[in-house]
Fold this protein.
Amino acid sequence: MKALRPFTINGEEIELALDTRDTLLELLRDRAGLTGSKEGCGNGNCGACTVLVDGAPVNACIMLAVEAVGRKIVTIEGVAANGKLDRVQQALIDLGGTQCGYCTPGVVLSATALLERNPNPTEIEIRHALAGNLCRCTGYDKIVEAVVAAAARVGA
């Protein structure tokens, strides 16, 4: 039986119907219509489904939706503001840190969480924070360069 539950998604308080078996990714994509988070592996290994829950990156494909009830969820759709890309998004574009784009939402959210808790990370800290986000296209160097550039764009 599906019951309505309260969620705060991208700053908006909404009630969504869910079954106790639903993953957070299913809730976001199928019920909230937020399709930016992707299912790559379905078992928490690739990071394509990464979203922020109370500011921390989580793999939405393995988190049950009921675990997110009443918590603050941010998806890739909630990162840009007022029609302007976030500094991480812009840096990835400027420095060629994306190719196919499948991993990009998860990378953006993981990098955003990193920069919130550590505004001036080292390359090693960046690589560690992004270790759960697999990219088959870029080789990671341009992604790391983009996060370094985003860190330098505080307030931009």
Observations:
- The longest strand covers residues 3-9.
- DSSP finds five helices and five strands in the chain.
- The first helix runs from residue 24 to 31.
